[in-house]
Amino acid sequence: MRAQFVLSEIGVGLRRNLTMTFAVIVSVALSLALLGGALLAREQVDSMKGYWYDKVQVSIYLCNENDAETDPNCTRGAVTAQQKRQILADLKKLDIVDRVYHETAEQAYKHYQEQFKDSPLADSLTPDQMQESYRVKLKDPTKFEVISTAFSGREGVQEVQDQRNLLENLFRMLNGMNWAALGLMGLMLIVALLLIVNTVRVAAFSRRRETGIMRLVGASSFYIQMPFIAEAAFAGLLGAVGATVLLVVSRYLLIDGGLALAEQMPLINFIGWDALFKVLPLVFVVGVLMPSLAAFFTLRKYLKV
Length: 305
Known about the structure:
Elements: H1 3-16, H2 18-53, E1 58-62, H3 65-70, H4 81-93, E2 97-103, H5 105-115, E3 133-138, H6 144-151, E4 157-162, H7 164-206, H8 208-216, H9 221-256, H10 261-264, H11 273-302
Antiparallel strand pairs: 1-3, 1-4, 2-3
Helix pairs in contact: 1-9, 2-7, 2-9, 2-11, 7-11, 9-11
């Protein structure tokens, strides 16, 4: 097979179907950008989960005098010194417990005043209304149920709270957005495939005379199909390049420049450029392979002479 012939046929095919080829490139670029964005978003969510789940704690809130009047878990009154010592001793016996922090009512009041100083409720609260608590850091944050089972309902314990629950709604929303991006990516891929099939069909029909002559002189099916497949692969390659540009520019504008989320949200561990560079090879493979396979299977039907 002469490479010069294949390259010339690619040029001819692209010029004859310039508008449809451009539509294929744009569709492939958008679908691949959505694919890469969805993969990066999933990695970002996993990174955030690993970062925050490692820092969350289990809070064991103890009963105070006010809870004894209003909370059914504290009907026997405020927690006693003996009960606090027993709870602390039992916590330290558990292998899953890494550290235990004790927060007094006065410390809880101080932290509340610092965090919610602008709230109208801040001035109405007094230290005796705040709850004393044990903050437990687990070696494995998923073992919350062990702590909950062991200490919920004990005398002096008002509530056992897992801070992971505060993050679940956020991660659930992010995962939902990720699935929506994947769904849109799938729709764009279908559109791109339909455009590729139609482009190949038009190209095969417009060159049916050349194809017939090549058949008569004994050219193999693969030799005849190769220019069409190469055209589709080249369009997919250009789409992958466009998707790469979109991903690189979007990552820079969102995290480093423009919005500068890395500076405005320092508590979030954003993924680095290395994560993007890991995704790009997959973008190029899909960008070249998908149009090539679509062209190959389309030509099996529409290139019979």
